[in-house]
Amino acid sequence: MKDTIYKYNTPLHIALLADLHDREFGWITDSLKAHEPEVICIAGDVVHRVDPTKSGLVIHQTKFVLPFLRACAEIAPTFMSLGNHEWTLCGEDIAVMVGTGVTVLDNRFVRFRDVVIGGLSSAGVTAYRDYRKDKPKRYPDWNYGDRPDVTEPDVAWLGDFCKQDGYKILLSHHPEYRDRYLKDLPIDLVLSGHAHGGQIRLFGQGLFAPGQGVLPKYTSGVHGNMIISKGLANTAGVVPRVFNWREVVYI
Predict the structure, then answer these.
(1) What is the pTM of this model?
(2) Is 246 helix (H, G, I), strand (E, B) or coil?
(3) In total, how many domains does the chain have?
(4) Domain span including residue 157
(5) Residue 225 in contact with residue 218, Cβ under 8 Å?
(6) Which residues pair with 158 in a beta bridge?
(7) Are 122 and 88 in contact (CB under 8 A)?
(8) Which candidate, 22, 52, 63, 171, has a CA 20 to 30 Å from the CA of 69?
């Protein structure tokens, strides 16, 4: 566990968090209290694997998510985008999350002071939402193994986002979206996660990342206008993080 600090031309002191995956978070809030960021930006995947076919809200299957969000909101204004593990959330789940004091940016943007902050939801979130529109149950039977990975995110709203005056920050869980959808847009700063630092790092290179495969291009650090967190948890089962500290990023 470490704190990583990047110097970047931004009007706010930002804490970037990503990929909690419903793990214990005391070390994270201790770091946040020590660094006193002006805003906390969570780039997706606070949730881990949950079963959308069970009765009740998915968010209530989690242990740490709601206390974590509440703790962040008590430290600084907190903004969150939705990652691939949030694909099971329905509107009621998101309302519960908003009740913690966090601003959930689901393909939308808000203004904070003179800064415009947007959140680009994972393609899987959009795909599952479309899938269940005409279903009689809020959570239709769709096994995790059938999760919607190979789809496109909803980028139509980014045109309006980019027309806004002021410094523009976009939370985009997937760093691979940058080259596909974002690189030609007038966005000042993109904040991402998802790659978990490449899981195993050798000579500064991550070995694998979902969405990018072997020897991925984007796993951590600063890449033009994008900063990537290595993440807050290890979720790769028997494959440990090697030479790859979990991190809280400060910008």
Answers:
(1) 0.93
(2) coil
(3) 1
(4) 2-250
(5) no
(6) none
(7) no
(8) 52
